[in-house]
Design a protein that fits this description.
Helix content is 36%, strand content 21%. It is an alpha/beta fold. It has a six-stranded mixed β-sheet, sandwiched between helices.
Amino acid sequence: MNSNPAIFDRTLMRLRQARALAYGPETFLIDRVAADLGDRLEAVLRTFERAADIGTPTDAVRRALTVSGKVINITGGADVIGDDEVLPFAEGSLDLAVSALALQFVNDLPGTLIQIRRALKPDGLLLAAMLGGDTLTELREAFAEAESEIDGGVSPRVAPFADVRAIGGLLQRAGFALPVVDTDRLTVRYDNVFALMRDLRRMGATNILLERRRTPLKRATLLRMAEIYTKRFADPDGRLRATFEVVWLSGWTPHESQQKPLKPGSATQRLADALGAKEISTGEKPDA
């Protein structure tokens, strides 16, 4: 049983994602991430017999991997992480697990990573993208100042996305070997902040925090937020910047064939010899 406190209202998340699909979703971000995921998988010199898409809110990843030829069979998508966040895969049943822009809304990310690792066969691969901590920093800052001025306090409006430095540690704690984490920052420009907010609604990515303020947003607060955003984050041509930080994470389930670090003292060649340099012992100064 998950003992971590819940952060996200995942039922509300599904309702808002369904509403976005019904009214016409904005898919530029998920499509870009899915294409990048396909490119990254192309660099892996093997094919995967059975793969699962973990929670991606559209079919963009499945479409990208189907045409890549790297995956024989892929299942899942938005339905894989249920309301109780229990993955429906038997232990050691997958060769590959992929996910795009879903894991940042999981209440128990360490537990989900452990479940994914258990579902993968030895030498199975996890390749996922999630939103990082610098995502929508401009909107967070503008809302915080506007609410402080107008409402006398700040309410949580932008999700506390994971810090990239912590994610590598989570992969190791979950039991993944050869963990790799890197980031891709995307700056999107808008005519005004309301166009950004419309895109977030059409992504199904509006506020789903359980601790969100339940009273309607005041018009005065919204207008003040727009004023602050425009003043601080406009380019010379008047268009506004919005940052999306995509954190990429990958790891393999342990297998005897994988490269392992050498044991201390097992080196057969000195570093100085490899570099063609003179070795200087402790306390000896280099020649002037």
